């Protein structure tokens, strides 16, 4: 291989690495902001968010308040985790699992024929009805989270 072809291959690898690094950063920040906003939105009216969680009719009433707190605070913890860049591959898998859980929860509610005025995605303040479009949003987020995970280096380093 000639020196010029080695330099060309090296510069194209560098370009791909830079693109991947930029995409990783953009996805990390996107998920951190999204999770922070949704977590805070839920915390602003926890009593209302209890009702949203209860409306899915999937948990016993006694479990609804703690489950709502776990969801809201869990989103904030994940946002901080992503921003802190500690064990980014594990953080990315956690984001994938969170959105898969939301996706399944939405699909089950739709398949059960529940008609909800608020899917709860953004707490109580930005109420959006549950529709077949709702799980599609989470499917896109699952795909983006998987892309983020895929773009991370295999060894645990800050990304």
Give an overview of the whole structure.
- This protein is mainly α and 159 residues long.
- The protein has one domain.
- It has five helices and no strands.
- The protein is globular and about 40 Å long.
- It has helices at residues 3-43, 46-55, 64-84, 88-111, 133-151.
- Helices cover 72% and strands 0% of the residues.
The total strand number stands at 0
Number of helical regions: 5
Q: Supply Rg.
A: 19 Å
Number of domains: 1
Shape: globular
Given helix and strand content, the structural type is: mainly alpha
Point out poorly predicted stretches.
4-16
Mean pLDDT: 84
**What is the CA-CA span between the terminal residues?**
33 Å
Q: Element order, helices and strands?
A: HHHHH
How much helix is in the residues? over 70%
Largest sheet: none
Fraction in beta strands: under 5%
Write the layout of secondary structure elements.
Elements (H helix, E strand, L loop, with lengths): L2 H41 L2 H10 L8 H21 L3 H24 L21 H19 L8
Jot down its keywords.
mainly alpha
Could you give a short description of this structure?
By secondary structure, this protein is an all-alpha fold. Helices cover 72% and strands 0% of the residues.
């Amino acid at each position: 291989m000639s020196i010029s072809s080695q330099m060309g291959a090296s510069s194209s690898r560098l370009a791909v690495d830079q693109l991947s690094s930029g995409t990783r950063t953009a996805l990390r920040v996107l998920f951190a902001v999204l999770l922070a906003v949704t977590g805070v939105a839920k915390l602003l009216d926890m009593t209302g968010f209890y009702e949203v969680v209860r409306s899915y009719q999937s948990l016993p009433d006694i479990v609804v308040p703690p489950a709502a707190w776990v969801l809201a605070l869990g989103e904030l913890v994940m946002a901080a985790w992503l921003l802190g860049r500690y064990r980014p591959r594990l953080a990315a898998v956690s984001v994938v699992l969170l959105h898969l859980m939301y996706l399944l929860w939405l699909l089950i509610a739709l398949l059960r024929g529940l008609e909800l005025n608020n899917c709860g995605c953004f707490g109580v303040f930005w109420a959006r009805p549950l529709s077949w479009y709702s799980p599609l949003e989470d499917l896109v987020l699952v795909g983006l989270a998987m892309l983020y995970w895929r773009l991370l280096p295999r060894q645990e380093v800050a990304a």
